[in-house]
Structure formats: structure tokens, C-alpha cells
Amino acid sequence: MKRNKQINIKRALALAGAFNFLLSCARGCLLPFLTLYFRQLGLTPTETGIVMGTKYLICQVWSPVGSLLSKHYNKRRVVINGCLVGSAAVALLLPFIPPVNVNTMNSTCNTSELKVSPTEIVGFSGVTQPANGKDSVSHFGVTFPVKKHHYKAEEKSDTMPQKKITVQVSSSTEKTNTSTSFHISNPVPARNERSKTKDLPKEKMSQGENEGSGFLDSLKGMDIQHQLFFLILIAVSVWEVASAPLDWTMDDGLYEYLDFADAADRHSSAGVWGLLGTACGVGGTGLLVSQLSCRVAAETPRSVVHFFCYAGLAALTLPVVFFLPLYLNKKHGRANGLLKAVQLVRGSPRALLCAITTLLVGMGTSAVDNFLLWQMQDHRSTELHMGFSLALGLLSQLAFPLIAGRLSKVLSPARVLTVGAASLGVQCFYYSFLWGPWAVLPAQVLSCFSGGALWWAVQVQCDDVATPGAERSVRRVYTALSLDLGRGLGSFTGGFVAQRLGLVWLFRLVALGLMVWCVCLPLLQFKAPRQRRINYSRLLAADASEASDSESEQERDWLDKAMEDGKSNNNYGRRISH
Fold it and tell me: How does it sit in the membrane (predicted)?
């Protein structure tokens, strides 16, 4: 077969872009809202952090292993299809996990529909921030800064009759302003209402408990909260095992295909469609879910729409996989390439500082990914506000190439790396002072630097430290440090901090840690020994010239020797003839 008929670069890039767009769109429909769904089920911040941290660590270990196995057995297309089908199937099973309490799934949606005055602020979280600046803990609490008197809030539910809840008011008076915060705890009854619950018939209470428990009653030996936690942990772990090898397997197959066609430099163009697809997915799903009522069916909350959108888009991605060009080059050893990349990063002080920065940025990003929507929900944000805000942050990252040329003339890549990490710190500090549904928008514009500029600087560092052929391996080392290891460690610690100190102090501590590192990073970069970049093109040219000189010298030696032998033979013949 002729090589021209086998290789079609434009078609390969178009199919790769379509695949990345559909897959990223599917993930954008669900993954940004996943921790918000866990909160509605009844998980605490610590439990949510453990679940997400386990997810990231499984991805870090299983992604390279699954990719190597698929390459060894030449089953890349089968692995990609299996990952899509398996992840979609597990995603459809997650909504069947019952919440801790039967009313938990709808409490947030119902309280968001309360009629309040424009001066009142409604929040929903396990940790609320009153107007006096002190944290107070309540289960899906609602915070209102109002005047110094008592109010009554009404809550409507489809399954329960209309009831009135007396709200206790605690005020704090200052010289400048007077603000009062009070909490509506639902569905946990207040202490002064426990006497009323005792008068209820035992049959109704047991019926409600059975409805709230469901399948969790089959797990004996632990309370219902821990049953829910372990069920979600197992389901998310299975989901990550099913979907983790997808990215690496597809990326390796496409790169080797383009490398075989001498077009490996165009491989990065397919990644732009990933960010665009994620922005469309998160924005479109947020708009769709916000337009629905609290329940899409008799007992189905509207949050399950995220899971169905994910499964539907994953199914649409399957036909693209059958036409996706995947090339198998058994000469490339990815395992050895990763080990060599780790040695290159460890051997360069500046590359090591860049690796530490990406690790810290990954830990800070985990706080934003896991708990930003919780903080937004505390200030009356709906899925519409959340989806639009996240989409704006992703689109701002896509806008960075427009200013990359001018920025590179003003700042060096090392300083751009510092600016990117500092921008994330400013974002986290801003998130701790949200006051309304749309208040998060100004900070999302900074994603152009905390996301786009930072990874541009990392890319430059990869090119500096990598040897020819090892650029992708070095880039994957930085990606694994930030996206998997950093976010995993950040999820564990972030959940614990949010449980102990609250969401506000979580973002403030993340901002403080990043700012301290950004102050130390330029000093460490200044003291680090500057390694001279090797110009491999000149070395190759020098090697070629030396080789040509040696070949010419060998040819001259051979010619001189042949001429001498010819002269000697002629002289010997003449002597014999005489």
C-alpha cells in the first residue's frame, strides 16, 4: 500500500478534534457538578474530599498502566470503547444511591425558592458565613442579614404538607451597621421541635426511615452516614477505573499516527477543542438544569440530568472512535520515557521548581474544583450562575494565545509562572468574599493567567529541559503532578480544612499558601544555577560536517593508496617485461 493513501492529516485532526470536543463536553456536563451532588446526598466536606482525592490518585496510577497494556496487546480501540461504555454505565448507576434523608435532595431546591427581600442573602451549606464574620455550622443552613427581630419562613415540599418554621435570630451590632443571621435547619428538626416529633406515630417515623435508607439497610454494622460514604466511594472508584485509561490511550494512538506522517508538531491543536467542549458542556447543562423544576419526575431530582447528559454524550462519542486513526509503534517505550523524563526534571533545579509550583497549583485548584460551587450555593447561586461562571473561566483560558506573544516580550517564562500561580491565589482570596450569585464573574477572568499563562510557562520549561523525543514525557510528568497528584492531595487536605474551619477559611488559606510560594519562587529561581540550553540543530550540523570531513579524508586516503598500488604494479610489470 502506498503511504499517501494511508495518511490523511486533515482528516485525522478533524476526527481527533471531534472526539475531544464530545468527550470534554460530556465531562463538563457532570464532573464540575459532582461534588455539589455529593453535598445534596448528605456527604460532609471531609468525606467529599476523600472521595475526590481517591478518584485523582486512581487516575494517576491506572492511566499509564492501562495505556501501556492497551499498547502491548494492540487493543487501543477496544479500550477506548470500553472506557466510554463503562463510565457511562457507572454514571447512570450513581443516581440510584439514596441520600441520607429522603428530603435532603430537595431541601436546597425548595429553600432556593423562598421569597425574600432584595436585601436578604440566602445561603446553603454545612458551613455558613454570617454578617458578623464568624463561622457557624448548620445542615444546609440559610443565612439572612436582617433587622433585629424575628421572622418566619415558609417551606413548601411536594411530599410534605406546608409547614412553618420559627427561626431563631442572633444579632451583632456594630458602629457602622447592624446585621442579624439566622439559620433554617432542614430536614434536621430543631431542639425545640423534638418534643413535637415524639408525638408522631411510630409507624410514620419508621416509614420515613425506610424510605431514606433503602438499599443502605443491607449494609450492616455501620450507621447510615458511613454507608452512604462507602457506597459513593466504591462507585466513584469503579467509575475512575473504567474511564482513567481513556485519555492516555487516545493521545498515544493519535500522536504516533501523526508522528508516522511527520506531522507530530500539529498534535497539540486537538487539545483546544477539549477546553471548548468543556465550556459548552458546563454552560449548556447549567442552563438546562436551571430551567427545570425541582423534580423531573415523581421522585427524581433534577440534578440527575447531569448524569443522563454525560451518558448521552458519551454514547455520541462512540461512532467517532470507529473512524479515529490510531497507529501502533512498538518501538517507542513509554515506560522508559517517563522514567527518563522524571530524571530530567529532577536533574534541573529550575525544572524542579516548576514541578513544585505545578504541584501547589494543583492542590489549590482542587479547592476550587471541589468547593467553589458550595461557596456559590451559599450565596443563592443556581446551576445557571455556576455553569456560566465556569464556562467563562474556561473561555478566558482559550483567549490567552491572543496575548501570549506580547506577554512573552514583557515577562520571562519564569516570571509568567509566578504570575500564573499568584493569579490563582488572588482568585481563591476573592472567592472567600462572595456576596451574590454573579459576584464570582470578575475572578473568573483571571483564569486566563492562572490556567492559560501558567501552562504556557510550563510548556516552555518542558522544551528547555527535555531532550529530543522526550518532550511529551516531560509534559506528562508536569501534568501528572498537577492534575492527579496535586489535586488528590489537595482534596484530602481541603476537605479536612473545610470541615474544621469552613469554606471561607479554606479559600483564604489556599490563597495565603500560594502567595507565600510566589514570594519565595523568584528568589529560588535567581539562586538556582542557570543551565545553558543546547542547540541541537547546531550539534547535528556539526556532526554532519565532521562526518563529511572524515568521509572525504577516507576517500582521499583510499584514492592515494590505490594510485600508489597502481604505480607499483605498473613498475613491477615493466620490470618483468624487460
Answer: Multi-pass membrane protein
Distance, in Å, from the CA atom of 64 to the CA atom of 71, rounded to the nearest integer, reads 11
Q: Taking CA 213 as the corner, what is the angle to CA 212 and CA 218, rounded to the nearest 5 degrees?
A: 170
Give the up-direction half-sphere exposure of residue 385: CA atoms within 13 A in the CB hemisphere. 19
Distance CA 407, CA 326 (A): 37
**Three-state SS at 354:** helix
At 554 the pLDDT is: 53
Three-point CA angle 348, 354, 359, nearest 5°? 125
- Is there a single domain that holds both residue 378 and residue 275? no
Domain span at 406: 334-535
Same domain for 260 and 409, yes or no, is no
Closest CA to 104 of 49, 43, 31: 43
* Helix extents (H) in 181-270: 194-198, 202-213, 224-243, 245-260
Mark which of 154, 169, 201 sits at the end of a domain: 201
CB 141 within 8 A of CB 170: no
**Pair 191, 250 in one domain:** no
Whether residue 575 lies inside any domain: the answer is: no
- The whole-number average pLDDT for the span 537-566 is 54
Q: How many CB atoms lie under 10 A from the CB of residue 286?
A: 25
pLDDT confidence bin for 10, thresholds 50/70/90: confident
In a domain? residue 561: no
Could you tell me if 142 and 285 lie in one domain? no
Q: Name residue, grid cell 469554606.
A: 503
Q: Give the Cα separation of 204 and 371 in Å (integer).
A: 36
Cα angle: 104, vertex 110, 113; to 5 degrees? 155
Q: Are residues 175 and 60 in the same domain?
A: no
Average pLDDT on 480-505 reads 94
In a domain, 209, yes or no: no
570: confidence class by pLDDT, cuts 50, 70, 90: low
Cell of 363: 492542590
How far from 195 is each of 103, 189, 200, 207, 316, CA to CA, in Å?
20, 10, 9, 19, 54
d(CA 243, CA 250): 12
Q: How many domains does one find in the chain?
A: 3
Q: Which residue reads 498537577 in cell numbers?
A: 482
Does a structural domain hold residue 114?
yes
Length of the chain: 578
Backbone angles phi, psi at 174, to 5 degrees: -125, 175
Element (H, E) at 173: strand 169-173
Q: Do both 377 and 500 map to the same domain?
A: yes
Instruction: With CA atoms as reference, report the closest residue to 22 among 323, 320, 326.
Output: 320
Alpha-carbon distance of 77 to 75, in angstroms, equals 6
266: domain CATH number is: 1.20.1250.20
Cell of 308: 443522563
Tell whether 92 and 37 lie within a shared domain.
Answer: yes
Query: CB neighbours of 244 closer than 8 A, spacing ≥ 6?
Result: 58, 59, 62, 63, 66, 83
